[in-house]
Amino acid sequence: MPALEALWESRQLTNNGPFHQQLEQALCQFLDVPELALFCNGTIALLAALRALDLEEGEVITTPFSFVATTHALRWAGLTPVFADIDPVTLNLDPERVAAAITPRTRALLPVHVYGRPCDTAALDALAARHGLKVLYDAAHAFGVRTPGLLRAGDLSVLSLHATKVFHTFEGGAVICRDAAMKRRLQQIRNFGFVDELTVDSVGINGKLNELQAAIGLLQLPRYDANNQQRAAVDAAYRAGLAALPGLALPPGTDPLSHNHSYFPVRIQAGFACSRDALYERLKLQGILTRRYFHPLISRFPMYAELPSAQPDHLPMATQAAQEVLCLPLFAGMSVADSARVIDAIQAVTRSG
């Protein structure tokens, strides 16, 4: 491949090389954001963002309905997670529940754009402004979502570029920021805190994205729109084939500006032919791999379960969602014919009971 040949000939395999710089510029243009710093993965990007915002102690309000890395990053940074409940429709943090969770020890909010659906950023940002709090958005699922200003909301937003995402670099992450000064701060953090060859003036980490991964990103980015259209076709097929099934609730509608077709989460509720977990197992027997995503809730894992905010009666909407959600297959290269097999299998379950 010409790109990989050029990489090898350059003899620069990492440390902010030419492919790395090109990808940062290309992503800023594609996502319409002012500045972006690439990282080796999304979790390190979250840790770096927390460090860049000088969040080193106190409480951070976040969601229990996310991948566990969201909350692990807070613990690694020495911060105390406080869980607030979610909106029953969007499955994102409920601003009213966030407001009720704020205490004198609260330092920041860490909302998640779950399945790529935008949070109520206007309400969350306004709430943070009233209380003098930082806002860091976990936008791991939200690459390519075109809601105006979404990735410019809050103080920083973090993307995951993991291989399961709609755009990826095998492994990778990025922090979106407002200005060059913050980008320089993030660059220092991802390179051990170095300012120049001889000077280290802050605690940093090795968070660099290497040139091979950056080259993969540059090769993939021009294909994003075509891949997204293919995902949209599968999404539409699922909606048409599953709409009439009792007890199976489809995800909210797909406004093209606020959806990237990254996931297709259905909810298995009263009236369906079997439980969510039984459907998961029956599909698995047919070679159809779904995900109970997110189950268990982060708040049920042992390192978080004893927190006062982690109790199930404090999180009724999140608890219910974790018991109902099943993400159906949706991935790059998946065809409408592939989705028909999934639909047929689910319909067969409803017929057999």
From TrEMBL:
The keyword Magnesium does not apply. Keywords: Aminotransferase, Pyridoxal phosphate, Transferase. Belongs to the DegT/DnrJ/EryC1 family. The active site is at 165 (proton acceptor). One of its GO terms (molecular function) is pyridoxal phosphate binding. The lineage of its organism: Bacteria, Pseudomonadati, Pseudomonadota, Betaproteobacteria, Burkholderiales. It comes from the Bacteria. This is DegT/DnrJ/EryC1/StrS family aminotransferase. InterPro entries: DegT/StrS_aminotransferase (IPR000653), PyrdxlP-dep_Trfase (IPR015424), PyrdxlP-dep_Trfase_major (IPR015421), PyrdxlP-dep_Trfase_small (IPR015422). GO terms for biological process: polysaccharide biosynthetic process. The modification N6-(pyridoxal phosphate)lysine is found at residue 165. Transmembrane segments: none annotated.
